[in-house]
Amino acid sequence: MAEVLAEGFNVFDTTKSPAGTVKYLESPSDVISLIRSGKLGEHILLVRGGTTTFLAPALSMGAIGVITMSGAPESHLGILSREFQTPCVMTAHLSSSESRYVVGDTDDAHFVEIAKALDGRRVRLDCTDHETGRVLADD
Amino acid sequence: MTTTAAQGTTTGSTFRDRYRPEDEGLRFQELTYTGNFVGMEPVTDGIKGDKMMRARAKSKVLEKVTADDVRKDQFTIDELNDLNNYLAWNIWDVLVMRATEGVSGMIPRQEYEILAFMHEFYRWPEILRMTTREVGGAQGIMDIGATARREIGTKVNAVHDWAIGAVGFGMGRCGLLALEAIGPDDYISESNDILKFMQRVLWGKRQDGYLLNSQDRYRCKIHDDDFLATLTAQIEPLEAGGPEHAAFTQFNAAAELLSFLDHYDCRLGLGDTGPYELPDGNLLILRDLFVNEEVFHWSDVCDDAGLPHAYTLAIVLDPEKMSLAEIRVNDISTTFTRPKNYIDAIVGGAVFSREKWNTPMGQVANIPIKDLPGHLERVRTATLKLYSKTSRMCRRDLIWNGQYVYYVDMILPHLRLAGTYDKACRDYNLWEIDQRVANYYYDITKRGFAQETVPSKIFSGAGYLPFSDGADLGNSKGRWL
């Protein structure tokens, strides 16, 4: 099995295993730029929040896979990921780090560390496990 | 393994067991609830949680009640406290897992939510009293609720009706208590006004004596059989993996996403009813997706894209195909299943379009699934334009726009049907911001009030303080001390 870079909640069981370069989306303008680049389908999208609206046009236009740093399968984004059948790993944490997301008590450094480790990496999502979604190295 | 009532065959689904009186349902989460029941056994989610909360009630307000009960002018203190406790648990039940979401990255939802909660508690009572007067009293409000039984694409639905009490009373009062702007025995009379309005609308809609879906094992079966038959006759068969199935499910997701965005990242844009068991044993969910709300100025992009007020999807699930163990249509109009993923189990569907909020039901049109790609394109166009427009707004505009989505939209459908929306705008300054709430804008980010203090009190249940035994039902705000 390939190296597990990160893991989190699996939003739904699927044999789909999308691969692509992680793109960290920090602001709405990043989302708009990605869509306008025409390269949406080449990327696994990495975001901080587990809400839907931040990723709205990307999901609607055919995002292939999503990793979030907060949120659970019951969140807006979890619901929409299932409806779109877009594989999604939520509240992902790095396998190489002890840092974990805690509601209302997560230092900014937690998010920065994950973004730094994953942004630009070639990865594949494994969402076959009922509970745990995995981000595998694919380079 | 179980036997289906409809077919008499042995299958892998077990969801019908959830409707046996002794059944306590599945646990969808490991967390438990305490609220105002410190020192007692923690309350669970789901069917068991509903049973526990009702067993702890002092009154009969959470059991099936009659029309005469609903017509009474006010609740007793025990009834108010039972509703307060139950709504607090219900809010926890449907929302606590959402507490993990973190920040939106675009819309400051927690900030606008708390402002809206408090605004509603202060401003809604006189508008709801006026509306009740204008429709001739309690029965008129019950009749507004009853309209939902033979309509689709109407916002007189579970989430809006629930929000009147759960949000306007429950969370609004909770927020003001947390801010120490009010005490537990302030505004009892106004609390009664809000909760009576909620009770009357919900009772009129359900007609079974219950108020909430959670009291009926998470079912919202409000439509009459003959009305449902007119819709199910138009359902087209779908096969997982086929192009029609893909077109239907992708349209569902895209329209749902736009409805969230048009309603500022909240579920007021979504309304599920059901599950209705069909003669063949399959389950029907009716899903309203409000993709264009004309009172929101930002929804002009949805007009430009030629979108209707609402699409309604009839979604047919084969429970055996997914070995369905439990299905919940919760009180915020959202369907959750175990197993979680029901998309592959969709075996039929139909889409309907309601042009305006007041388009007669007879003019609600069926859209053949082969025509969905054109609608999907319009939805995508509106989504990108609305996203681009929203991303250019300053934080203050985002917060007040979101505040309007809650404060106006949660009672908008009822005011529309009562014919009092224009009067509320003209004579009651509905769209103005109360000075008290305007001032709270500057307090909500201090000491984590909006992002930590209030969510903690709302989700834990600790902030829903009870009214005192023997408190005066006529109490408003007697003193500013």
Largest interface: A-B, 45 and 46 residues
CATH T-level fold name of chain A = Glucose Oxidase, domain 1
Number of helices of chain B: 16
Structural class of chain A: alpha/beta
Helix percentage range of chain B:
40-55%
CATH C-level of chain A: Alpha Beta
- Give the tally of β-strands of chain A: 7
Low-confidence stretches of chain A: none
Largest sheet, spatial ordering of strands of chain A: 1-5-4-3-2-6-7
Largest sheet of chain B: 6 strands, antiparallel
Helix proportion of chain A: 25-40%
Strand fraction of chain B: 5-15%
Distance between the termini of chain B: 63 Å
Protein name (chain A): PEP-utilising enzyme mobile domain-containing protein
Domain PEP-utilising enzyme mobile (chain A): 45-127
GO molecular function, one term (chain A): transferase activity, transferring phosphorus-containing groups
InterPro entries (chain A): PEP-util_enz_mobile_dom, Phosphohistidine_dom_sf
Name the features.
heterodimer, A: 139 residues, alpha/beta, Glucose Oxidase, domain 1, seven-stranded mixed barrel, globular, B: 481 residues, alpha+beta, 2 domains, six-stranded antiparallel β-sheet, 10 strands
Topology:
The complex is a heterodimer of chains A (139) and B (481).
Chain A: E1 4-10, E2 19-24, H1 28-37, E3 43-47, H2 56-60, E4 66-68, H3 76-84, E5 88-94, H4 108-118, E6 122-126, E7 132-137
Parallel strand pairs in A: 2-3, 3-4, 4-5
Antiparallel strand pairs in A: 1-5, 1-7, 2-6, 6-7
Chain B: E1 2-3, E2 10-11, H1 46-55, H2 67-71, H3 77-95, H4 109-134, H5 138-146, H6 158-178, H7 188-206, H8 225-232, E3 236-237, H9 243-262, E4 270-277, E5 283-289, H10 300-304, E6 310-317, E7 326-329, E8 335-338, E9 346-354, E10 365-367, H11 372-391, H12 395-409, H13 412-418, H14 421-428, H15 435-440, H16 449-460
Antiparallel strand pairs in B: 1-2, 3-9, 4-5, 5-6, 6-9, 7-8, 9-10
Helix pairs in contact in B: 1-3, 3-6, 4-6, 4-7, 4-12, 4-16, 5-7, 6-7, 6-16, 9-11
